Structure formats: structure tokens, C-alpha cells
Amino acid sequence: MSLKQFYTFLLFIFLIPVLSSCFQVIEEITMRNDGTGDVVLTINLSQSKTKVASVMLLDSVQGHKVPSKQKIQQELSEAVAYLKKSEGISNVKSSTDFNNYIATISFTFKDVSNINNITKNILAQQKIKATNSSSYSYNKTTGVFSRKYQAVGTAKTEFNKLKSQDKAIFNTASYTSIYRFEKPVSTVSNPAANVSKSKKAVMLKSSILDLINGKINVSNQIQLSK
């Protein structure tokens, strides 16, 4: 599963029709020493909640149909149902805060590799093109957590096809990945990544436009202390 691609799915059902200002997408993975872990995916529109609330009262905006709260809940429920049937995935939950416009999906995995193909299949069901190739792995013996990311060459081309007002949606959008571990982090391969003071978390934040335009790569190899 590419977690960033999962956000693409959520963006299409929730954000694209209603956005008029900044938003955040946040990916959190908590790895345990035994290889199991938890994922929390969040889309946060709270900084734009007043504008979003106004748009939600409309039938359409900029040529996009505005989804109802019921439609959003339905789509999230379908995503949850799919995740519950996925191998190695359990404890799937979703939440929506329509006061602050925050949507979250969380689940537990037996092995981080269990999440690698989920988004690809979800996007295929929705007939949405993937924007990147991304995979995760964790070697319990060596204590190495890896995230491999490869942007799809057509992502920038597809973005350039959007109308100017649709492109503007992404001007202040940000993407943040946070990886937490039980052991301290020794090294990280991505120079843009920041290690927490506790040495047990790694954060990488970038603008979504930089990802679309290939100006940043979120691949990372994280070596834990032995």
C-alpha cells in the first residue's frame, strides 16, 4: 500500500470538491520490535473549516459536485470494509469530525508489508490513477525500516491538466509522515527527515506540490539501535 495514494482516494471523495484553502495530510506508522504495528491516516481541513462549512451548503463548486456528509461517511465505511477483508489487517476504524473537518482511518498490521498492495486495489476500484509507487518493509533482525518511494512520471502531466482554480487548492497543502519506534533511531537516509529528541520518532514534512513536481523524494531507510 502506498499510504500517500490512500490519501489520493480520500481527497477525491472528500477534499477536491470542497477545498478552497490549505489542508494537511498526515501518515503515522508505529512500529513494534516484533514487526507488528499501527497506521493512522489523517486529512485535516481545520484551518479552512469556515470556508469548507460554507461550501458544504452548496450543490457544486468549480464544476465539482459537493458530497453530502452521508456520502462521505458511506465512502469511508466502504474503505473500512475493504480494509477489514485485507490480509494481515485488523482493528480497522474511521472517524469524521464535521466541526473541524478532519477525517481519519486507523488499523493494525501483522507485518508492515501487509499494507503495500491495499491502496493500489482501492484506487483501482475507484478508477483513480496512482500518483506514485511506494512500499514499506521492516527487518526485525537488522532493525532497518524502509520506505521506498517512486513518483509516477505522469503525475505532473496529470496535474498540469487541471484547471487553474483546481491547481490552487494544492498551493498550501502539506504532507507529513511520522514513524515511531520502540528502539532509538541510529541513522536516517533522507536528509529532509528530522529525528525527535527521544530518538524514537522520525518526521518528514513537505509540500504536496513538491511531491507532484518531483522536487522531493520521501524514500527513507531508518536504522534502529541494536
From TrEMBL:
Q: Which domain of life is it from?
A: Bacteria
Which organism encodes this protein? Pedobacter punctiformis
Question: What protein name applies here?
Answer: Lipoprotein
Listed PROSITE patterns: PROKAR_LIPOPROTEIN (PS51257)
